[in-house]
Design goal:
The protein has 25 helices and 2 strands. The chain has 570 residues and is an all-alpha fold.
């Protein structure tokens, strides 16, 4: 265990870092949540007293390593490392693929049943009496169970129990403990995820578990439509984002009903407000709109005009992309070099319109030849073909299925699908290590708004605004930094910049090239902000575990403010 932590996380277990909770630290944490929520401490078997997620991974690795070494006499600890890593990676891949397949089966089957039930209901609606209505109700309950669960009677019982709870209390009013318990039940009993995977997923620190998190949300929305509290017109991606945002807001707020003590409510609200203010101050005191300064132009009063303009730009851009496919198809049939001069002139006129639509103001000269070659080099694709590709790389689970379906270069050459530079590029990709190939596909899906030419300009701008901090990290950019010998003062800066950034009127500044978002950027302030966000994430995960345990023990209900067994005694 010590070797694993040292090798993978550079942690010294003997130094008792924050990840290794001592019994006194756990007790202090339990006392905190008891005061915060007004709920008695959990039983000694609570998650709060168990090993951290990091330690669980270390112990799982150590147990597997011990088994391998016992089965192979004379094998050293070092020799067993690669074998154990490979076995655990295989287990992880199998779990990820199993989860995704179950999710797809449930969604496909339930969608088909919904269509069938709708037609059946419409045809028999006028003939139903009270008796047949009751019979229909029981049949509906039976038909709502996907076939993948038919050999799991206990899971079906659990599903019926959760359905009754949702009928009793609207999902949006549920406590964090109840909502986490439902997702935990789905992960373990339906998607067959391991307990270690669930705990790591709840901790939110492993991006490799994104696909399994999506599987949980999609299955919950499918089996329990009441939990999908987003708008009907929203896309699945928006549904998932809203669901995640809802859970986050629930995790960071203490919801108190009228039955609770007013003093407790005031104290909790004050504490949350203080934390929000602290996070805002570490972020420079800017809200979300203000932090998107790299991609937004104009003042707030121009917002409506910008929205109208972006809509017009989206329409124009969509038309240009459709026209580009026609030009590409023509280039495939007859290379550009063989076009008539009139046709070349027509393309140049079109390309000028395209460049003026997509290129922001720049002092650099546009390379016409390189731009023409880049535009015509790709094959013509339809929106349907484009969507089919990106839907297969939307997360690591889909990307892995797609990767395993790819044909080898030799097979493609035999079929004549690829030739020339296309084959050279594909061969270079094929020769990469498996994990690297998978990572490239996941990156392609993650950065779809940047790589997908069918993405509207407004959607691309939103993506850049939302993820600018991450996308710019590491790039050397000009920064305004305090400099005793600098020639720049507050008088040289725009008024809104002085107000937003809290510029000291007596301070002088200079321009310095600094890698954006690195430890050098912001130094102590940036480091403190990261530490605070990590602590905040740990708090949310710990509170979710605490409340779930309380819910399972019957000490916390579906709603906040409903008295528990212990509160009734008091």
């Amino acid at each position: 265990v010590k070797s694993y932590l040292k090798r993978n996380y550079d942690l010294d277990m003997d130094a008792s870092p924050q990840h290794m909770k001592s019994s006194s630290a756990v007790a202090t944490e339990e006392d905190y949540y008891e005061r915060l929520l007004g709920i008695p401490k959990p039983a000694p078997s609570s998650f709060m007293g168990q090993k951290s997620t990091l330690l669980n991974k270390a112990y799982a690795f150590a147990v597997k390593q011990h088994e391998i070494m016992r089965q192979n006499d004379g094998m050293t600890e070092e020799e067993s490392l690669d074998i154990v890593e490979e076995l655990l990676a295989q287990d992880n891949t199998s779990e990820r693929q199993t989860s995704r397949q179950i999710q797809k089966d449930i969604v496909t089957e339930m969608s088909s049943k919904k269509t069938t039930d709708t037609k059946s209901t419409d045809s028999t609606k006028e003939k139903e009496d009270a008796t047949t209505a009751e019979s229909s109700s029981s049949k509906t309950l039976e038909s709502s169970t996907p076939s993948v669960l038919h050999n799991k009677p206990r899971t079906i019982q659990g599903m019926n129990l959760w359905s009754k709870r949702l009928q009793a209390v609207p999902y949006k009013e549920w406590t964090v403990g109840a909502s986490v318990a439902l997702d935990h039940w789905i992960a373990r009993n339906i998607l067959e995820l391991s307990e270690e995977t669930w705990e790591e997923l709840l901790g939110g620190e492993n991006p490799d578990l994104t696909s399994r998190g999506k599987d949980i949300l999609i299955v919950r929305h499918t089996l329990f439509p009441e939990t999908n509290i987003s708008s009907k017109s929203s896309t699945l991606a928006e549904d998932l984002q809203q669901d995640e945002d809802t859970f986050e807001s629930m995790s960071t707020e203490t919801q108190v009903t009228e039955e609770d003590d007013d003093d407790d409510s005031t104290t909790a609200d004050s504490a949350e407000k203080t934390i929000d203010e602290l996070l805002a101050s570490l972020g420079g005191g800017l809200d979300d709109d203000e932090t998107n300064k790299f991609w937004k132009d104009g003042d707030e009063e121009d917002a409506e005009a910008q929205t109208e303009e972006s809509g017009d730009l989206d329409d124009m851009y969509a038309q240009l992309i459709d026209e580009l496919q026609e030009w590409r198809a023509e280039n495939v049939e007859t290379p550009y070099e063989e076009w008539t001069q009139q046709r070349k002139d027509d393309f140049e006129d079109w390309m000028n319109r395209y460049v003026s639509a997509v290129v922001r103001e720049t002092d650099e000269e546009i390379d016409v030849d390189a731009t023409r070659t880049a535009l015509l080099s790709g094959p013509p694709t339809t929106r349907e073909e484009n969507e089919a590709l990106f839907s297969r790389v939307q997360d690591e689970a889909e990307a892995e299925i797609f990767l395993q379906s790819l044909k080898s270069p030799s097979d493609l050459m035999a079929e004549g699908d690829f030739k020339g530079q296309d084959m050279e590029a594909y061969q270079a990709y094929w020769n990469l290590p498996y994990n690297t190939k998978l990572e490239r596909l996941v990156q392609l899906g993650t950065l779809r708004p940047l790589w997908d030419e069918y993405t509207s300009e407004s959607e691309r701008t939103k993506f850049l605004a939302r993820h600018s901090e991450k996308l710019l990290e590491g790039l050397e950019l000009e920064h305004l930094v305090p400099d005793p010998n600098g020639a720049i003062t507050a008088e040289d800066m725009p008024g809104n910049m002085v107000k937003q950034q809290g510029v000291d009127a007596d301070q002088t500044y200079g321009i310095k090239m600094i890698p954006y978002g690195t430890e050098e950027y912001g130094t102590a302030l940036s480091e403190k902000a990261r530490m605070l966000y990590q602590a905040w994430n740990t708090h949310k995960a710990s509170r979710a575990q605490y409340e779930e345990k309380m819910f399972k023990q019957g000490k916390l209900g579906l709603r906040y403010g409903k008295t528990t067994k212990d509160k009734k005694k008091n």
